[in-house]
Amino acid sequence: MAQSRRSFCKNTATIVGAAGMVSAFPTLAGCSDKPKIKYGVIGVNGMGLTNIMRFMEQPDTMLVAMCDVDNNILERRVQDAKEYYKETEKERGNNNPGELKIDTYNDYREMMKDESIDAVIIATPDHWHCLPFIEACKAKKDIYVEKPLANTIEECAIMEKYAKEHNIVVQVGQWQRSDKHWMDAIEYVHSGKLGNVRTVKTWAYLSWLKPEPRDDMQPPQGVDYDFWLGPAPEKPFNPNRFHFHFRWFWDYGGGLMTDWGAHLIDLGIYGMKADMPKAITSAGGNFSIDKKAMETPDTQTVIYEFDNFMLTWEHAVGIDRGPYNRGHGVAFIGDKGTLVVDRGGWEVMPEQEGQEGSIEAVPRKSGDGKGAAKHVRDFLDCIRSRRKTAAPIEIGKQIGIVSHLGNIAHRTGDKLIWDKSQMRFKDNDKANALIRPNYRAPWVLPEL
User: Cα-Cα-Cα-Cα dihedral of 346, 347, 351, 353, to 10°?
Assistant: First the structure.
């Protein structure tokens, strides 16, 4: 049974809120006189639903296709979208919108054959980002892909190669790069007012993500579980390895390190105008959550060494109180003061307030909550102009790799030296073995 628009919005807001994002879609505008950008979505649960809503809020788009291996979710989303389409069109002054036609697929390769599709959204689990991305590039479709860009370092590099070869406009879902208050904070850091910034802290402490162990079982009816596994190793079905919680298992994701780290480390490196670390160490483990529910560490600290500063990442699943009494954030610690920024706003705390030569405090400046919607708008505008997006493939690759460096340091237990030019670790075969995934037949990863 189709949901009402109000119900659909409410359910979406719950999902968006659970992902730690503030949903603030722009007011619906009148119908655009430009041809609509036709798009399809691969993976329509979770972030797929969130992205469907964000794109449908833009008047110059048309949802024409959905693809998912879970028919239960797929059927539900089609009805949701059709209902929402009618309501939004009426708000735009179209009282006779007709029926929204959405083609459905279980195999993304079939969807790519539709030449009318201009762009695709890839919102699958991380281990399913690379292959659909490659197919979209070959089909000449522009791509909005969720972060992290991929589940391994080499997949990130391969995706960049295909996007550049086929001249594809790519927006990676690192939406904070389209959020004004984050950019205002970065501009302050770039001004030099903090003095010499010697340390950057990035973190995520999230209580609501805590999973509980569950027994293996048969896959739900309507789910093509073998296709869901795809290139990942064959494993019994477990609810914790499926929707949402897949990110806690190395086969499909990289835990909070690649989930929230891809957002926050990105801004830390951007603020420092840096590129790749020269050395990486990590400590942590599963100290609170049973490994049956979470393979990735529930508690982790990573130290990235750069030439003139160090950047730290830390996370904890199951608790909320992080550094500076914030559940997540980035802190730039300089000789003259510290700037702290999170999704709610930013502020500056002087090192020696009131003393001669001290910088002035900056009271907390709140964000407007529109970054995610602006990120979608930027992608659509770039499809038309063919300019680079706010978070292009190069940025997604860079931060995808940096996040994976932290996880590989954790998994090997070694201090790692990264050689960017060779895309390899120096003198560490264990770490180098984790750069490229071993795909399960018949799936094949192209060579770089």
Answer: 180
Could you tell me if 129 and 199 lie in one domain?
Answer: no
Q: Is residue 447 part of a domain?
A: no
Q: Which residues of 247-276 are buried (b: 16+ CB within 10 A; e: fewer)?
A: bbbbbbbbbbbbbbbbbbbbbbbbbbebeb
- Do residue 161 and residue 281 come from a single domain? no
Alpha-carbon distances, residue 46 vs 123, 299, 424 (angstroms): 8, 24, 34
Of 312, 325, 327, 331, the C-alpha closest to 194 is: 331
The Cα 423–Cα 403 span in angstroms is: 14
One-character DSSP codes across 216-272: --PPPTTB-HHHHHTTSPP----GGGSTTGGGGSTTT--HHHHHTHHHHHHHHHHHT
123 within 8 A of 146, measured Cβ to Cβ:
yes
Pairing type for strands 197-206 and 328-334 reads: antiparallel
Q: Look at residue 169 and give its three-state secondary structure.
A: coil
Q: Any long-range contacts for 417-426 (C-beta under 8 Å, 24+ apart)?
A: 417/278, 417/279, 418/276, 418/277, 418/278, 418/279, 418/280, 420/275, 420/276, 423/153, 423/154, 423/157, 423/448
- Give φ, ψ of 223 to 5 degrees: -110, 125
Residue 317: closest CA among 341, 344, 281, 286: 286
Q: Provide the number of structural domains found in the chain.
A: 2
Contact (CB, 8 A) for 397 and 160: yes
pTM of the model: 0.92
The amino acid present at 388, given as its one-letter code, is K
Q: Is 446 among the domain residues?
A: no
- List, for residues 281-338, the tens digit of each pLDDT value: 999 999 999 999 999 999 999 999 999 999 999 999 999 999 999 999 999 999 999 9
Domain of residue 245, CATH code: 3.30.360.10
Whole-angstrom distance, CA of residue 378 vs CA of residue 187 = 20
Q: What is the mean pLDDT of residues 191-219?
A: 94
- Its domain, for residue 257, covers 179-365+399-432
